[in-house]
Amino acid sequence: MATVDINTGPPITGKFSAIVVDASGVPPSDVVRVSDPFSIDCSWYLEGGLASSIGGKWYVQAAFESVGPGAEFRSAELTLNLDGRTGSANPYTAQLNFPAGANFPSGQPKVPAGDRNATYEVAVLLSYTDVAGNPGPLSASVNLERLTIYA
Fold this sequence. Notes:
By secondary structure, the chain is mainly beta. The chain has a single domain, classed as Sandwich (Immunoglobulin-like), CATH 2.60.40. Helix content is 0%, strand content 49%. The chain contains no helices and 11 strands. A hairpin with a 5-residue loop joins strand 5 and strand 6 (72-74). The radius of gyration is 17 Å and the shape is elongated. It starts with a strand and ends with a strand.
């Protein structure tokens, strides 16, 4: 699991974490068979005196960049409303799901034709808009380990 600070400076701080989970449960989780579904599980929180008074929306998305030839794309973006929760004991959570099969939900092949596997750099992106829909400074990105998908 990778974790980074959500650093806007005092009086609000936080943490953002993400990890790849292979639904088959076979370790290591950074090597996934094409026929297995997998997810990227995310959690984050804010804390500080003003954290509970912030409103708006969170956005979570994964960006995949092929190491060598292959797909480069972003996953669908998940949206969650800020609801006043604060602290590590009550985090926000999201799960980006990737079904089993030869293609990503974007339609791009997980493993290029003729190859046995493909490796991706994966960054998980967290962003925020305030109640008026304006982008705000509450953002972070987590670079996960390289993800290898094999046929």
